Amino acid sequence: YSSVSSISDHVTANILEDNDWVQAYTRENRRKLGERYNYLTAWAKKNGITYAPGVNAAFFLWVDLGSAYRSHRSWEATESVDVQVMTALLSKKVFLASGKQFGSEQPGWFRIVFTCGLEMLEEGLRRILQALEG
User: Fold this and answer.
1) Residue 79, Cα to own-chain centre: how many angstroms?
2) Looking at residue 124, what DSSP letter applies?
3) Which of 2, 6, 19, 104 is in Cβ range 3.0-4.6 Å of 109 for a Cys bridge?
4) What is the mean pLDDT of the chain?
5) Can you give the pTM of this predicted structure?
6) 63, 109 in Cβ contact below 8 A?
7) pLDDT (0 to 100) of residue 79
């Protein structure tokens, strides 16, 4: 519990007082977020993965990986679909936040964060498909 240094505080205040810079930064950030959101939703549609539309103001997309997992594999009811999908994802070295941790009303929903570089996002999505398809 400490404050930032006075130098950091001063630099941050100067940056945020530059209205032109803040507006340009916000515009560019929105553009990049929009591109990644569109890329991810196109990927989901192409691969038959249901997602929650209309949540493009966030840094992640809610996707129903449980249904996609069940459509590619025989699902064993001995474990929850959340656990089975998470195990499959981790076997491909992918960690996604389970909707169960965020109060999802249905099992099998996960959050895919899309605010990384395109190369990293593409690799993660490739691995997610591998995990789902087995």
Assistant:
1) 24
2) H
3) 104
4) 91
5) 0.83
6) yes
7) 73
Residue from 105, 117, 116, 125 nearest 52 by CA: 105
Quote the DSSP letter at residue 99.
G
- Amino acid (one-letter) located at 46: K
Sequence-ordered list of residues with C-beta below 8 angstroms from that of 16, at least 6 positions apart, any chain: 22
What percent helix, strand, coil does the chain show, rounded to 5?
Answer: 60, 10, 30
Task: Read off the tokens for 117.
Answer: 């570089």
């515009």: which residue's tokens? 27
* Mean pLDDT, range 5-28, rounded to an integer: 94
Q: How many Cβ atoms are within 10 Å of 84's Cβ, its own excluded?
A: 20
Evaluate whether 108 touches 52 at the Cβ level (below 8 Å).
Answer: no
Pairing of strands 97-98, 60-64: unpaired
The share of the chain scoring above pLDDT 90, in percent, equals 74
User: Does the pLDDT at position 56 exceed 60?
Assistant: no
**133 CB neighbour count, 10 Å cutoff:** 13
